[in-house]
Amino acid sequence: MKRAISPLALLLALGLATPAIAEEEVAWRLFVADHAEPTVTAIDLESGDALGSFALSGPATLYATPAKRAVYAVQGNDNQVAVIATGVSVDDHGDHGDLTLTDPSLGSAVLTGERPVHFVEHDGNFAVFYDGEGVARTYSETAVLAGDATFAETATPAPHHGVAIPFGAHTIITEPNAEDPKALPTGVWVRDGAGATVGDFHACPDLHGEASSGNLLAIACGSGLLIAREGGEGPEISFLPYAPDLPEGKATALLGGVGFQYFLGNYGASRVAVIDPSAQDAFRLVDLPTRRVHFAVDPVRPKFAYVFTEDGNLLQLDILSAAVTGTLRLTEPYSMDGEWSLPRPRVAVAGDEIAVTDPLKGLIHIVDAHSFAKTREIALAGKPFNIVAVGGAGETHGHHHH
């Protein structure tokens, strides 16, 4: 008597078994630029081990995009932007994400132009503004990672310290100060894909600083913020003035909240501003015990942001209450006196941990975000300075590696 073979047994016999059970994994990598040497080091956060070191032409400011696939090393004094593939890929499958880890590597595409400074990404495209030329070049991140540095160029009347912001099918770009192009820009124009101007000029004297939060874009001006949102015919831009009862000051650096919509900006040397454009009291100031060195928002715990101050403390800032709710001593004091470009700590949030560079000690301090307590240090030769964190969680389908 013949025995029936079950469909499952048949699949197993044919080597067509169901896929390996997926394994949930969390992986974060730190990319750290040295202050003096033209190098960027990739570090596995869990082990603290270096995954690779990449030689550049000069010291770099680092940017990571939401896609997590690349870190961009902007070398303003050496007229180029290097592309470092992070080796981290998180593919969204709706009910879960797939995490793939490979070795980080220096990409073949090098973006060139005279004095690149501001780097801004939106929806898979990013713009680099080249101060020495007064032009912005917009690139596709997918193309650049494949080695294709093709760009669309948007010109301004003169070289200046400007910024360009990809915004859907349009670009928002600065207008230089006509009397003195070395001064800060005076406002922005909107250009379409063909480079034609759309709508009126939007005044923004002393323009410096921009950020996105949700579907809003904020641009910092001397007297308030320009707020842009997508409209039917392109960006709709309005002006949010500083309240008349605020003390003298302005924001010149902005970060965008993740998880809920707000902006965090500096406001003078020893204050920060929590900005909610939809609130009647849009600007809430937080006094700091000493001058601010650097700050970062927390994308995992949206109610928190972190401010490093010159006394060596990392402050936990509650965005909802606009109050400092934690203070943690991490380093020796780093005075804000002297040149702005001196080596001073920088902050990055990596999942459930916060990383703070300590350039003069050759260390990266690691803080547990839940307990707000320091847990360990990672030693790194040289003067670890600019830092970005890239990573996430996902299913690895049996391919477990760091």
Automatic annotation (TrEMBL):
<dbReference type="InterPro" id="IPR011044">
    <property type="entry name" value="Quino_amine_DH_bsu"/>
</dbReference>
<dbReference type="InterPro" id="IPR051200">
    <property type="entry name" value="Host-pathogen_enzymatic-act"/>
</dbReference>
<protein>
    <submittedName>
        <fullName>Uncharacterized protein</fullName>
    </submittedName>
</protein>
<dbReference type="InterPro" id="IPR015943">
    <property type="entry name" value="WD40/YVTN_repeat-like_dom_sf"/>
</dbReference>
